[in-house]
Structures are given as structure tokens and as C-alpha cells.
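Exercise: predict the fold of this chain.
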Amino acid sequence: MKKKAALFLAAMMAVGTAVPASAADSFKDINDVPWGGAQAYINSVFESGLMVGEIDENGNRVFHAKNNISYTETAQLVYSLSGTTVSTDVVQKWTSVMKSNKIPSWAYNCVAYCLENSIVTITDLNIFYNADGSARSATREDAAYIFGRFLVSQNISATTNTKNFADKNNISAVCQQYVDILSSYDIFVGDDDNKFNPNNTINRAEMAVIVSKTYNMLKDKSIVNDDGEKTTKADYTGYINYAGPDFNGIGPKAFMLYTYDGQSIVLDTVADSQYYLDGEPISTRGIYSLTSNGVLVSAEVYVNSRNQAMEIYCKRAAVEGQVTNIGTKKTKDKNGDEYSYRSVTIKFASGMTRSYRIDDDTDIYFDDDEIDIDELEEYLDEYPEIFGSADVQYNDEYDVYPNAYVKELKTNFILKEEGTISEIDGETVKIVADDGREYEYKLDSVVRYYLDGKKVRLPAFREGVYTNVSKVQLTFDNLGYVTRIEAEKYAE
């Protein structure tokens, strides 16, 4: 039976590498944003189903982050956040009012909900549409008015942490109390000059921030008492998807967490928030350097009464995949001087590749024998399919990116099997090899199935292959668990 190298990836690494892929694929225009970092909030509201964009003429999903949000869309968002379904009787009750104010029929449910719950008044509907019937863009203070009255309907009031904006006198009296509610939870914040800018319109990226923060706060409201104090510790657990800098004055430093129950949420941090990695304090830059280099970082997050992350306890998983290249990279230090360093490139099961810095004190092994980087390069030239498991760490003494480097790299050959599939279920697969013998393998918990090069689920895979006919190739780890099954669809 022919044996070659194969790719093994642990279950945790499979989850971690899948997250950025799904986030990046959410919108075709995901990088056309008004400020860097908005992508995290946009992906958060997309994955929660609150803002899903639209399909353009080319069949691509787009978000239009720079476009203004309308009053009707704002009403739709608070309706979605409510998690309720308005009754037909309520819609009929307000239909004549909505028609007279040019509300389109698609918005009847959300606007009727807002009218019924005193989130907007009949008079408020006058500003939803222009005289020519076009939708009017919502201002910041009116959006705060709608969201604030929505929170009041949810029995949520302002905490003692309201912000004193420099242009407070420019906020209309009817909107001020609702601006206070939103600002006390850091849902609405000011610009770099501490101005609220009440009459500015809101673009879709800014609304993604507001919706994301409101959504997270509503999930957490049961642990906040009437004084805005925490009664118990909020605990978010998952994988850190992004940890980055200040989002252009929209909010404080934030990070995106992919929770164990499959949601993406954005959590803010404050000046005294602290990350810990394996029990030791680490900077935001350190977490960013690790995660941006493909290192899976799990986290337990504890928040304050404003749902801001105060303590983030992280653990780092090994980077595992196929070693595809040993190379030399050039970069410049903070003084502009160019220098070189060695690197190793690893390809994950998802297809994503990352290069990691190799230092002089990096420990490298091949089949448990210690070797140097040049010997590993020779092995790679002779045997192109080599598996590597890298202990990637962060070194804050480096002057330039990447700050992530390999402390230890273990490599070895891995195996593939080819044959004819004879039986497969959710736990095992049996194949008949070229020598006529049948072999049984246990399936890994994150096994991937491919038909004609396309990733499919097990039911589709079983439907597309024929037992005792279809040729398959198995990739399995050194414990004998299958991590990947590839087959060509059987043609009758």
C-alpha cells in the first residue's frame, strides 16, 4: 500500500482556522470600510443575523459600510434586537397610520412594533421619508432616541457612567435622556474631541457598532442590577478572532471573540483591562501578533457592568499543518535598517498559510532527532510532504513585525492511504487496498469530506460515492484517525 505524507490538524486548530475564513467571506466589500477595524463589528452583526447586507447584480453579498442608514432601517434593527414577532392585529391597528406616512409594506412589522411599544410616536413618522418618497438618513441623536426608547421598553435605564459631551448643548432636549442611556453603556461614544455630533448622519459601519454593542448588552442585562452594578461575573468563552487598535474613535480598543456556541461578538476593553497568556500578563499587541499569525488563542473573558472586558485569560494552542517552505525573509527595523531572518511556512487544513520566524535558539526536530534549519530544508527538498507542529510564541523585544516566532518545531512524515471505499458511517471508514485487504480507520472529530475537490458534509459525500466502486484517498494522523477523505463523484 502506497504511503506518503499527510496533513494532520487537531480539532481545536480546525475550529480556529475556520473562523477567519467565514468572517472574510461574509461580504465581497468587507474591506471597503470607513475606518480600519470596522470589519470585526460588521462580521459580528452578520453572523448574528442582524445586518446581512444584500446581494448585488453579480451575485455577491455586499454590506455598503459607508452608506447612510435610514430611519426605517433603524426601526427594523431594534425590532430584530427585540427577538419578538409582532402580531397581525398590531400591524392592522397601525396600517392606516403607516400608509399615510409613506412607510413601505416591507417595514410594516418593525414600525408597528415600534409604535405599539412607544419606541416611536406617530409624529416621529413624519421624518422617516422625504416629500419625494425617498428614505431619509437617520441622524446620530435620532438613532439614539430610537435605540434609547427601545432600551427603556426593555426596562433598561442609564447607569451613573453617562458621558458629558463637549457639544451637549447641541443635543435636542427630547433626545438627551436617550443619549445618556446609550452613552452610559458605551454604545454611543464621542469623537476624538469628545463631541457627540448629534446632527451627523450614521453610516452602516457605525450602525454595526451600535447594534453589536446593544446585542451584547441585552444578552448580559440579567446580571446588571438597577444601579448598573454587576451582581455576578459575566463569562464569555471562545477563541479570539481579532484583537486590534482603537477603531477610529468609534470605541475603545476591542477584540472579536468566536464563542464556543458559534457566535461572533465584539467586546470593548478599557485602559486597565488586562490580557493574560498562560497565566502571564501580555499586551494587546502580543495577542494581535499571535492571532494574526494563525495561532489559535482561546479565552475566558470577565466583564464589568458596562460589558467591557476587564480580564481576558488566554491559552495558546500549537500551530499544526504541512510544512511547505523554508525560506529567508527581509524586513526593516524601527531605524529603517534592513536585515534578514529565516522562516518556516505552514499550511493549515483550511488552506491558509502562515510564515513564522525561526530564531537561532529555535529547537527543531525530525522524528524526535534534533536537527537545524538547513537540514530541515534538505528534508523538505527530498520529501515535499512533511507535517510540522510549532510552538509559536510572542517576543516583545522585537523591533518589527513579526513578533511571533517559533520556539520549538517538531516535524515528521505522515501517511496517506488509497483504495476503494467499502463502508463509511459517522465514526469509521473501511477501504479495500490494492492488495485486496480491507482496512478500517476511525474518523477524527473534525474529518473533512471532499467530492471532486469540493468540501461537502457526510450525507452528501455518502450520496456521491458508491461502495466497492469509488476510489478514495484517506489522510490520517499518526494515531490512525482519519482527518480528510477525498473522492471523485461516481459517474454512472
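Check your answer against the key: DSSP finds eleven helices and 20 strands in the chain.
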